[in-house]
Amino acid sequence: MKTRSSWVLFSLFVFLAGCTSLRTGGEVQYGRQALLEGRNEAALGYFYSAAQMDPNYIYRTGSSPTQSVWSYVGRTEYLTGRIPQARQSLERALSTNQPEDITRLYLGLTLAREGDRARGLKEIEGGMRGINSFLDYINQAQRYSIGQFWDPDRDIRRAIQSDLAMISGKDVDWQRLTANTEWLGIRMEQESDLARRQEGRNKPSRSTE
C-alpha cells in the first residue's frame, strides 16, 4: 500500500512539473512573439511570468542555441530602459548557462550604457564571434539538415565581420555599433524561426497512397 501511495505521489509530481513546464514554455513563446513585433513592455511581462513559474527554465528548440529565461528577461529589460535590472538578469543567465552568445551581446550593450565601455566591448565582441562560429558550424555539420537554412546568404556573418573590423580599429562608432548589435540580437531570434519554417517547407511530403 505504501509503495502504491508513493507511486501516486511521484506520478502527481511529474504531472504537475510537466504542466508547469508547458505553461512556462507558453509564456516564453508569447514573449518571443511580442519581442519580435517590437512590443517590448508586453514581452517583458511574459518573460517575468515565465521566470516566476520556473527560474531555471531553458528555452530549447531544434538546432537553435539554448537560452535561459533570464536572458530573455535581461534583454527586454535593456530594451525598455531598465539598465541595472538588465545587468543582473543577464549575468544571472550567463552564470547558469554559459554558452549564450546573444546574452553576451546584450550584456555588452548594458555595460556600455552604464559607462563600462571597455568590458562592454569585450562582451559584444565575444558574442559576435560566438554567433559567427555557431553559424559556420551549423552550416557545415551534415547531421543538421536545418543548417542550410541558417543565414543562407551570409548576411548575418557579413554584418558581424564588418562590426568586428570596426571593433579592432582605433575608433569605435558607438552609435553604429549599438544599433548593429541590437539588430543582430533580434535577427538571430528571427533566424531561428525562419530556419525551422524553411526546413518544414522543404521536407518531402509523405505519400498518401
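The record above closes out task 2.4. Task 2.5 opens with a second protein, given below.
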Amino acid sequence: MRQFSPNRAKALLVLLPCSVIALYFIWGFGGYTVFLSFTDSGFLPSYNLAGLEQYRTLFADPRWWVAYKNMFIFGGLYVGGCLAFGILLAILLDRATKGEALFRTLYLYPMSLSLVVTGLAWQWLLNPTTGIQALVRDMGYEDFKFNWLVSNDYAIYTVAFAAIWHGTGLIMILYLSGIKSVDNETWYAARIDRVPTWRVYFNIILPQLRTTLLTAIMLLGFQVIRSFDVVVALTKGGPGYASDVPARYVYDYFFERGKIGQGSAGAVIMVATMIMIILPYLIYEVRRKD
C-alpha cells in the first residue's frame, strides 16, 4: 500500500487553492454557460428552460455558419503555419553559429505585443489606401492589387497571417529548447554514419519532441478559441461578416444584442468543437506513453 508522505500532503495543500479557483471560475462558469444555452435567457439570465430552442435559432442563423467555417479556416492556417514556421526557425537558429541571441529576440518580439496592437499594425500594412498596395502603386505599378483586407473571400486569410506572425515565436522557443536538450551523442553517431543533417532533425530529433508538439497544439488551440482580439482590431469581422469568428459572434450576442441564450449556445458549440478535435490526439499521446 502506498504511503501518504508529508511532502505529498504539502504538495496537495499547495495545489488545493488553485484547484478550487480553476473548478469555480473555469468549470463552474463553463457549466453555467451550458445551462444558459438551454434557457430562454435574453438581455438578462433566465432560469426558464427552453430545450434546444437556442440551438435551433443558432443553426438557422447564416452569420453563425460563416463564423463557424472561418474558425476551421483560421484554426487550420494558424496552427499549421505557426508549427511549420516555428519549427523551421528553431532548426535554423540551432544551426546558427553567430547571432543566435539577436535573431531569437527578433522572432520572439511579436509575442511582446498584444493581439490588438498586432491587428492594428497589420491593418495599416494591408489597407489598400495606406499600406502595401498604395506603396507599390506609388512606385509606378498602377495595376498592382493587394486588397485582401477588404475582400469577402480573403479577409479571413489576412487575419490568419497576422496571427501566425504573432504566434510563431512561441513555437520557435518551445522547439528550440527541445532541440537544445537532445544528447550530443545523437549528433556524434549521425556524423559517424554520415547521416544528412536534415534527416537527423526530421527523422531522429523531431520525433523525440512529441511532448513539445502536444504542448504547442494545446496552446495554439486555445488561441483559436479566443481569436477575438486580432479579428476586432484587424477587420472588425468585416467586410460584412466575412471574417467573423465564433468568439466575436458570442461576444456580440452576449453583450451587444442582449441574447445571452443564443450567445451561450454558440460558446458551447465552439468549445465542444475544439475539444472533439484535440481530445483524440491527446488520448492517443497518453495511451502511447503508457
